[in-house]
Structure formats: C-alpha cells, structure tokens
Design goal:
Chain A: Keywords: Signal. With about 350 residues, chain A is of the alpha/beta class. Chain A contains 11 helices and 14 strands. Chain A has a 6-stranded parallel sheet with strand order 2-1-3-4-5-11, with helices on both faces. Chain A has a 6-stranded mixed sheet with strand order 7-6-8-9-10-12, with helices on both faces. In chain A, strand 13 and strand 14 form a beta hairpin. In chain A, helix 3 packs parallel to helix 4, helix 5 runs parallel beside helix 6 and helix 7 packs parallel to helix 8. About 5% of the residues of chain A have low confidence. Chain B has about 300 residues and is mostly helical. Chain B has a single domain, classed as ABC transporter involved in vitamin B12 uptake, BtuC. Chain B is about 70% helix and about 0% strand. Chain B is globular, with a radius of gyration of 20 Å. Classes of the chains: A alpha/beta (about 350), B mainly alpha (about 300). Chains A and B meet through strand 7, helix 7 and helix 8 of A and helix 1, helix 11 and helix 12 of B.
Chain lengths: ~350, ~300
C-alpha cells in the first residue's frame, strides 16, 4: 500500500471513530432570549444548562445561542441546531412557540421542549413554572410594605404568563391592604435595561414605593436604590446583590432538576411529550430570602402563605373573584383550573387599565 | 386616568437624562459624517465605551475616570475602523457593521466579571440656592456634569464646524476630498481624527448608560441606541442643534409614554410604545426638507492617486 493510501485509510478510520464517539453523546441545545449575563431569566436557564453538563459529564454536549429575537428569526436558529445534530432542544421563551412547532414538524426525531407555551406535538413538550405562586407571596409583602398605597408593576408583553402574575400579586396585595392600587407600565421587551430603568423611575415619580417587575434585568433595582425609600423583588434569579434593600425578596426559577430529568429521558429513550407545570411545592419556583428590611410579622405572614401554597392547602386563585368588568369568575371557595390560568387574558376586578390587545 | 400624577418638572429632568446617550453618540457621528465618512459602528463603540467606563469606574472608584476610559475605549475601537477604511480602503458600510458586531462581542467578553456589580455613584451638581429653585432647579441645576458636557459639546461642534478654520477644512474634506487633497489638506489624517472623535463621543454615550442612566453592566445594554443616533444625524440634516432637538424629542417621548402608561391614559399601549420613533421621524422629516447639507463625499473612499 502506498503511504498516501495508508494515511487516507487512517484518516478515515479516525474520522469514523470520532463520529462513533460523537453519536454516543447526547447533544442538548438551548435557545435563549437574552444574554446569559442578564442576571435574571436567561442566566437561570444557563445555570440549569451547566447543571446538565455537571450531571452527565462526557455523555452530554450542550450548545446554546443567546439573545435570539422572538419571532421568525428564532426558526432559523432552532433549525440550525437541529441540523447540527441536537437530540433535545430547549427553547426558553414564550415568543418561540410557533417557531418551535414549525421546526419540530421538520425534525420528527429531535425532541423539543418549549418554556411557557401551550402548543404541544408528538415531539414537543411544554414546561413552565407556577410563578404566580411566588407572586402571591410578593403581593402580600408589597401590600403590607407600601406606605403610598401605590405599587408599580413593569410588565413585558401582555401574554397570559405576565397577566397571571399581575392578577396574583394584585389579589394578595389587596387582601392585606384594601387601599392598594397598581400602576402598570408595559415595556414591550424582556430585556432592555435603559427602558426598564426609565419605567421604574417613572413609576417612582408617580408615587410608587414598591416596584414589581416582569422583565429580566436588574435595572429596576438600581433605579429603586437611587430613589431611596423604594422596595423591589428579584425576578427569575435572586438578585441578592441588591439585598437587603431595595430587593427584599425574590422569585427564583430553578430549572436544573427538570432539565436533568428530561435529558436523562432522551438518553434512555423514555422521553414522551408532556406538559409540566410545577410550582413552589416541587421546587421549580423558589422564594429568595426575605430580607431584614421587612418587619418580622410581615415576613412570617409571607412565609406562612408560601408554606400553604407549597403543601397544596391554598391556591392563589381561590374565589370569590370577579373579572375586571364586574362579571363573576370564581365562586366562593372555587379554585381556578389550569386551562383558564394558562390562557389568562383578563384582569381581576380592581386593577385599572386595559390589557394591550 | 390621572394626568395630575405626571410631574412636568420631573418629566423634563428625566427626558434630559434619557436623551444624553443618544445626543453624545449622535454629535460624534455628525462630525465623522461631516468629514465624509459613514461609520455604522456607533452601537459597537457605545457598548465598548459602556464596559470600559464601567470597569474603570468600578476599579478606581471614580466615575469621572470611567468616562475618560470610555472615551478612550470608544476611540481605540474606532481605530479598527480607521485601519479598515482609511488604510486598507475597505467598504465603509460593511466595516461599520462589522465594528458593531465586534464591539458587542468584545464588550460581552470584557464584561464577564462585572455582572451584578454596582458602580460608584456619579455626584450631581448641587448648587446651594439654584438647585432648590422650584421647577427651574431640578431641570437646569441638578444633573450630573456629563449631561451639561453633552450640551456644551453640541455648542462647541456647531461653532467649530461653522466658524473655525478646522471646521472649514473638515467640511471641505467631506464635501469634495479630491479638491481638498489638491489644496494640500491631509484628507486621510483629518478623517482619522474625525473618526477617533466620533469613537470617543460614542464611548461617552455608552458609559452614560452604564454609569448614570441604568447604572449597572449587562450585556447588550445599549439596546439599539447607537442605531437611533445614526438615524438622528441623517434626519437632523447634519446640523448640531437639530441633533440636540431630535435627541430631546426622542428621549422626551420615550419618558412621556411611560408616564402616560403609568397614569393610565386610555391610548393603546402599542401606539405609545412606537410614538418616540414615529414623532421623531415625523418632525425630523419635516426639518430635513431643507436639503442643504449632506456631505457630498459621504461614504466614498478616498485614495490619493485619483
């Protein structure tokens, strides 16, 4: 055999060997809506990705693309991941829903997991956390802590997830403080620190002394700190660098157990499409430490509520509740079903303002 | 709806803050374009300035040093553009876009260790009597020094372009680089100086976001302000005072629409959200009906052998 042929043969054998090794690995892709350094939503998803790597070591390879715009461009990114051999792809924002479904149709062998959506398929699961349980705790603290009785709320997009959080926070703030009033600003972005900071400043200028946010950066915390006597809550991640004040508590997303479980299911072939929605009880939603800026009795009240939600003895959406237009929604003692919650497109009675359509 | 909740004094004071990053970046780009160079890398230079300023301010504890570092950082990044367009004679549009992408990546890399850190606060100008005046005090006398610097810079650039010899030479280079070259002016050198100035201004604008307006570091935090600044220069028909007007208009309506939302005004939020862009474009389109001032050599490559 001529040397060149030996070389070629060796190269081929080597090439085959590496492909064989590559096939052993399970490739898991992640599509992020923000940068991994946002300190909030995307940061927590990326922590969970690292947890998957730590759990499975060499058996798994993870890839991610950050700051992917919601909408049509996401389809290109997801397709690209599937083409490059991903076995399991997590698309981690509501706005990737239709794109995930579209790509899934083209790649029946690839498994997809879409966060916070509601459309499933044979190879598409959806998963989300019951953040509204955490917002009930925040609402309680907000209602007790406000002196001006004005609570500012920075919303991202008018989707069920965000509206659900507003309703939950409002119901529980009103429960402990009948005079509380919500001022809502829609930012129409998940992540734009300058805009979030401006929104927080505006709410503070208009009298809010508690700021709740459903956007991903820590800019509102910074604005609240500059303004002085205003409190905020960490969103998605703990944001503890702003504790003990202005950040007095937080809702923490913990995706790691779920990501590890689903990756394992792909590895052992037991993966099936599912619809998972876990809350405080299952540990998918965590409540960050309530800081000393909150008086002890309020802290105890909030923790009692958290415990009741965790053990299932209390549901944040328990009647009697009316919709904003005054029509009946839940009767005395009745709790909301998951279908209504998942598609929630109305405010409860008492919240002022319209939901952008 | 409760319009009384909106305090016009605070509104004006905060619109000035919201407008300053755009203003700084736009006035720098104006000088660059007046010299006949189209640098689309403003966003990249801003974000680089944002992290340079942030990191130096955190390390030294001095926000002012941070701003200096931001200007240097923006200018250093623009050197890459100089190399591409003035030395290698590459296409300016492509080079500018590349500069933005490069800047976004570089800043994310540099900023790895700075997520979640609080910068030292920039002190506000606090003049005993003047700052306490009702209405006038919060609007005119209670901002940070960089904001005033931005306004002064507009005035200086306007005066320089209109009345000084340097300005005339710069404009000559931008209008007709061959003629300027024939007259013996160093076209390339002047353009390099203009590009560096533009980079420094963009860097300052970026640092204003990371040190004062937000103040924190997060990747991608300039969120398109550089592109708005670029558009502003064109719509303001390359006139400094109109850049100021456009920046304040844009910043003002951005802040106003948030105020209106918080006050519960019954206008669909989507209209409010697009209003800053819409109103700014409308007003500037009307202003740009005067076609006097697009530099004739804008975006064209100069090579002395022609």
């Amino acid at each position: 055999m001529k040397p060149i042929k030996i070389l070629a043969g060796a190269a081929m054998a080597f090439g085959l060997a590496t492909t064989a090794i590559a096939e052993d690995k399970t490739k898991v892709g992640f599509v992020y809506v923000g940068p991994v350094g946002d300190g909030g939503w995307t940061y927590e998803h990326d922590q969970a990705r690292k947890a998957v790597e730590a759990e499975f070591g060499d058996k798994v390879e993870t890839v991610y693309v950050e700051s992917v715009a919601e909408g049509p461009d996401a389809e290109r990114v997801i397709t690209d991941m599937a083409l490059k051999g991903a076995d399991l792809i997590f698309t981690t924002s509501f706005g990737y829903m239709d794109q995930t479904i579209n790509v899934a149709k083209k790649f029946p062998d690839v498994k997809f997991e879409h966060a916070t959506g509601y459309k499933t398929a044979e190879n598409v699961s959806v998963y989300s956390a019951r953040f509204y349980e955490g917002r009930a705790v925040q609402g309680t603290i907000a209602g007790r802590m406000t002196k001006s009785n004005i609570v500012g709320y920075i919303g991202s997009y008018p989707i069920p997830e965000v509206i659900r959080g507003m309703n939950s926070a409002y119901i529980h703030a009103r429960k402990v403080n009948p005079d509380v009033q919500f001022k809502i600003v829609w930012a129409f972005t998940w992540f734009d620190p300058a805009k979030e900071a401006d929104a927080a400043k505006v709410l503070i200028e208009q009298g809010a002394d508690v700021i709740l946010q459903h956007t991903d950066s820590t800019a509102p915390q910074a604005a609240a700190q500059a303004a002085g006597d205003v409190i905020t809550f960490g969103q998605a991640s703990d944001m503890a660098e702003y504790a003990p004040k202005p950040r007095v508590s937080s809702i923490i997303d913990n995706w790691a157990p779920y990501y590890i479980e689903r990756t394992r299911a792909v590895m052992d072939g037991s993966w099936a499409s599912s619809n998972r929605w876990d809350g405080i009880g299952a540990g998918m939603v965590g409540i960050g430490e309530i800081s000393d800026a909150v008086p002890a009795e309020i802290k105890d009240e909030a923790l009692a509520l958290k415990a009741a939600i965790a053990d299932g003895s209390y549901h944040p959406f328990t009647g009697p509740l009316k919709k904003q237009d005054g029509s009946d929604w839940l009767a005395e003692g009745e709790t909301a079903d998951d279908g209504t919650l998942a598609g929630m497109n109305f405010f409860v009675e008492g919240i002022e303002g319209d939901i952008p359509q | 709806m409760d319009l009384t909740a909106i305090n016009p004094v605070l509104l004006i004071a905060s619109l000035m803050v919201a407008a300053t990053p755009i203003l700084l970046a736009a006035v720098g780009e104006l000088v660059v374009e007046k010299a006949g160079v189209l640098n689309l890398g403003v966003e990249g230079m801003m974000i680089t300035g944002a992290i340079c300023g942030f990191s130096i301010a955190v390390e030294t504890g001095s926000p002012l040093l941070g701003f200096v570092a931001a200007a240097v950082g923006g200018a250093v990044l623009s050197l890459l553009f100089v190399l591409l367009t003035q030395v290698a004679l590459a296409n300016q549009v492509a080079s500018g876009l590349a500069l933005t992408l490069f800047g976004l990546g570089l800043s994310a890399l540099m900023g790895q260790g700075y997520v979640g850190i609080k910068p030292p606060p920039m002190s506000r100008l606090d003049i005993p009597v003047l700052s306490d005046l009702p209405a006038v005090g919060p609007i005119l006398f209670s901002h940070d020094i960089v904001l005033y610097f931005g306004i002064a810079l507009v005035a200086a650039v306007w005066w320089m372009l209109k009345y000084s010899r340097v300005g005339l030479v710069l404009r000559a280079v931008g209008e007709n680089h061959d003629a300027a070259h024939a007259l013996g002016y160093k076209v390339i050198r002047i353009r390099i100086a203009a590009i560096l100035f533009g980079g420094a201004c963009a860097g300052l604008g970026g640092a204003y976001i990371s040190l004062i307006r937000v103040p924190q570091w997060t990747e991608g935090m300039t969120a398109g302000v550089g592109w708005i600044a670029l558009a502003l220069v064109v719509f303001a028909s390359w006139k400094p005072w109109r850049v100021l007007l456009g920046a304040y208009l844009f910043g003002g309506i951005t802040v106003l629409q948030l105020n209106l939302q918080a006050a519960g005004v019954a206008i669909p939020v989507e209209y409010l959200a697009m209003s800053p862009y819409l109103v700014t474009i409308l007003v500037l389109v009307i202003l740009s009906a005067d076609k006097s001032s697009a530099p004739a050599s804008l975006g064209r490559i100069f090579h002395a052998s022609h």
